[in-house]
Amino acid sequence: MNEHDLLDAIGGINPKYIKNADKAVSKNSKIARFRSYYLAAAGLLLLVVAGIVIRNNHVAPAYESMDETEEVTIDGAIPEGIEGEVPDVSEGSPMLTEGTTKASEETDGIEVTEGSEEVATEESLATESADSDYPAMVMYDGAVYKDSGEEFIGEILENGLLQVSSYTDGEPSENGQQNFDRSSETKFFVLNDDAIVVRIDPNEGIWRIFLKQ
Amino acid sequence: MDDSQIVELYLSRDESAITQTSQKYGTKLKRIAQNVLSDAETSKECENDAYLQTWNLIPPNEPRTYLFSFVGKIVRHLAIDRLRHENRQKRSAMYCELTDEMQECIPGSVDVSQEFDAKELSECINRFLDSCSEEQRNIFVRRYWYFDSVTEICAKYSLPQSKVKTTLFRMREKLKKHLADGGFTV
């Protein structure tokens, strides 16, 4: 066998490979895809700005109410006369059992009952996030790929798209398993030996690079 | 006209089959020949010879779903044969480059010949391509079947040159191992 024989033998490869390799990459679709990336990025930016504005609007009155409350001490201790009493749940009567900031937030024009629910919800969210405190990961071909946080801007290899097969709460332990999409409809493709590109948001069409661990 | 209809024309011995094939695939076929021969006139001759061979091979063959690869394989062989036999002393730079790269894939010493079955070798290469990712496979096929240059592959798939070169290098290494595992050692 020599190099000429090898070159001849390549001539007899499966026709489907020849057909697949002949499929042209449409430049129009690339432009359209980039356009959608820009739109998605702009949308995301708007959301972030709106989030910051809303958050600031919520926080500001809390500080105002704290200034108005004379009962709050420097270290957040409960003033004399209040300790041991049943807390008053009427508006403007803060439950000062914790630090000043939290106390003032709880008394921010909201009834204590509602405030407690809010705190409970925040606590449960915090627990949830602690439980699922894993970065997004996918296991493929025996290796775990972790979200690098870097968005992929390039050609999406539609022909090479693969789909995840299952969901896990922790770190993926079998091929096709991931820990961020309960519907397991996420698609991805292999970028190179050390990276895969995952469509983390099918609606926005956001693709992120996951690096091999 | 789709491939199946063109093959029907060949089967019914209708000469318009050649015109239809030429209209549909002529440019791509000529390019394959040109990539090897680097000569427009000889490439055109190869293309025409390929149509004639296709005419003679259909029937009995009926490549209804793979007409292009069928004719492409013929034109590819014709171009390589012509280069080997008529232009032995001054082979094209592209062909030298390709054979050099192919040499890297041959397990063991290259100066010792070995009896082998060409069909078996093709099947071994098919199995190797099966084991590769689609991107790797496409790059390999574009390089060694279509004889595209690295620059052309980069432009086609919007990939950087370094990536294409690295992919090809790794695939040659992998093919060498695969051939050795498949018993193609000398």
TrEMBL record, chain A:
Biased composition regions of type Acidic residues, renumbered to the chain: 106-121
Keyword Transmembrane helix applies: yes
Keywords annotated in UniProt: Membrane, Transmembrane, Transmembrane helix
Residues covered by region (Disordered): 83-130
Membrane-spanning intervals of the chain: 36-54
Name of the protein in its database record: Uncharacterized protein
Organism (species): Butyrivibrio proteoclasticus
UniProtKB/TrEMBL annotation, chain B:
Residues annotated as domain RNA polymerase sigma-70 ECF-like HTH: 4-180
One Gene Ontology molecular-function label: DNA binding
Keyword set includes Transcription regulation: yes
Taxonomic placement: Bacteria, Bacillati, Bacillota, Clostridia, Lachnospirales
Keywords on record: DNA-binding, Sigma factor, Transcription, Transcription regulation
Alphabetical list of NCBIfam families matching this protein: sigma70-ECF
One record GO biological process: DNA-templated transcription initiation
Keyword Magnesium: no
Species, as recorded: Butyrivibrio proteoclasticus
Official protein name in the record: RNA polymerase sigma-70 factor, ECF subfamily
Similarity comment text for this entry: Belongs to the sigma-70 factor family. ECF subfamily.
Family matches, as SUPFAM superfamilies: Sigma2 domain of RNA polymerase sigma factors, Sigma3 and sigma4 domains of RNA polymerase sigma factors
